[in-house]
């Protein structure tokens, strides 16, 4: 029971990590390898807010989000736009280059020491039905849940969200009805990185942070996004909880050494058997850039 | 696609006519190089040849059949570990050990290839990254590999100069062999099959090409080359641990080198490796603090301004 609750709480964090990654893949068919670095920058913004201005990490979430939103907007506008449509691998490599740049900048500013945020309530917990629930973890889970609901509402009801959905379904049809695709891509990229910033803020409140943390975070979001179905935005919550569940169970049965391995094995297995994600429908997986290209 | 074939025809013509002399001069100068320079230069050239052969392995996958095998570092590390274990526990001569390690890597790739190579595009790229990380985790968990604290190789009973010479010539013959293999692949029906798969896999299957067989075979070849490089690397370093043998930076370097040299070309990776390594040395020497940032900027500039690689500038463009 305790394990289950732990898994669900950790799963919330995982899904927050993968949300931005998944949205970029779903709408733009772009694999943002710099996602981990964006999360890292978000975590450092949160850290700076806490140490210099004494702002609680949960309150500074919008600041991290906004900062990364602007960073992503600029990066897309001046760099990434040039290679849109130049092939999917170019996108992977260019974002990797950008992540190296970000990592180095953060390293120069903060040095590569391990850092962490310690609030008055961190480490405290309450118990309910013999299950111990730490406050921070619960708050993270609730924030992640709120974030998912917000994204869902945004996609479903706002004009911008509807346009984004339209572009993700069919670029050419969307441009025919008067949607500025380039602007939508720009906004989507910025939303993706903004979500990474928020996830970074959440991560900073429980984990230690360091400039090279991007890579491990990136792999976590890979696994979660694949489990939930690549590009399937509502799948990330399921994917996150599933990954956390398997990790906890695997570590319990096989031993803590296997903690990392389980995620990767699970990912490769899911990719081979159900590329559309564990609960995903075939639809999202089948819309590749190639197929859209032949329609247009 | 048509442009590519035309370029290929042109490249063939060049090689057949006057570039043969140039290639011969290059090989001769590289063979004679160690007798005129310091150990530092020899080390640098060894590392250039190593990354060039890794880039050739990557190029076979992404350049010829369009599958981004970003996880090729898995075979590099695996082969390095097999070399270390065999040299520690048996009396097999090191040259044979290299080949055993490379063959095991190739078999590993073939085994994984049957399920993994059915995936396309991003899915394949992510799966290979997962395999690289997963292999590293397995190596870390196993007891025979020394786990996270790494494994040392037995010291050879020769002078350091001779060791460097052995390493240099091993890497040099590796890059020559792998370039010959690439040239051979492109000329033979295998090359046409691979390029048809890159163009359109459904069409290739419709034409009666056994796509799975060709994809798995070329991944095997790619893993063999990468594995040989990994084996020689382990022998060179004398000590390997999971972090250095499966370093994601190795992955990044050979990807960038392959892109810099030009995907789908034969000698592109070698030229790319020369350019990249010289740039790295210059960056290391001048901007130690921000070398990662400079590297990142170089990667981004490469993608934006020379996405098809420097080989494109060396050949006259015919429209």
Descriptive account of the structure:
The complex is a heterodimer of chains A (296) and B (319). Chain A is mostly helical. Chain A has a single domain, classed as ABC transporter involved in vitamin B12 uptake, BtuC (Orthogonal Bundle). Helices cover 73% and strands 3% of the residues of chain A. Chain A has 13 helices and 2 strands. Chain A has a two-stranded antiparallel sheet with strand order 1-2. In chain A, strand 1 and strand 2 (131-134) form a beta hairpin. Chain A is globular and about 60 Å long. By secondary structure, chain B is mainly α. Chain B has a domain at 38-248. Helix content of chain B is 76%, strand content 1%. Chain B is built from 15 helices and 2 strands. Chain B has a two-stranded antiparallel sheet. In chain B, helix 4 (73-89) packs parallel to helix 6 (121-141) and helix 4 crosses helix 10. The longest helix of chain B is centred in the middle third of the chain and has 28 residues, at 160-187. Chain B is globular, with a radius of gyration of 19 Å. The two termini of chain B are 13 Å apart. The model of chain B has no long low-confidence stretch (mean pLDDT 80).
In short:
The complex is a heterodimer of chains A (296) and B (319). Helix content of chain A is 73%, strand content 3%.
Walk me through the topology.
The complex is a heterodimer of chains A (296) and B (319).
Chain A: H1 2-28, H2 35-53, H3 61-78, H4 88-110, E1 125-128, E2 131-134, H5 135-157, H6 159-169, H7 171-176, H8 181-206, H9 214-228, H10 235-254, H11 259-273, H12 282-286, H13 289-295
Antiparallel strand pairs in A: 1-2
Helix pairs in contact in A: 1-5, 1-8, 1-9, 1-10, 2-3, 2-4, 2-8, 2-9, 3-8, 5-6, 5-8, 6-8, 9-10, 9-11, 10-11
Chain B: H1 2-16, H2 19-32, H3 39-64, H4 73-89, H5 94-116, H6 121-141, E1 151-152, H7 160-187, H8 189-199, H9 201-206, H10 211-237, E2 239-240, H11 242-245, H12 248-261, H13 268-286, H14 291-305, H15 311-314
Antiparallel strand pairs in B: 1-2
Helix pairs in contact in B: 3-7, 3-10, 3-12, 3-13, 4-5, 4-6, 4-10, 5-10, 7-8, 7-10, 8-10, 12-13
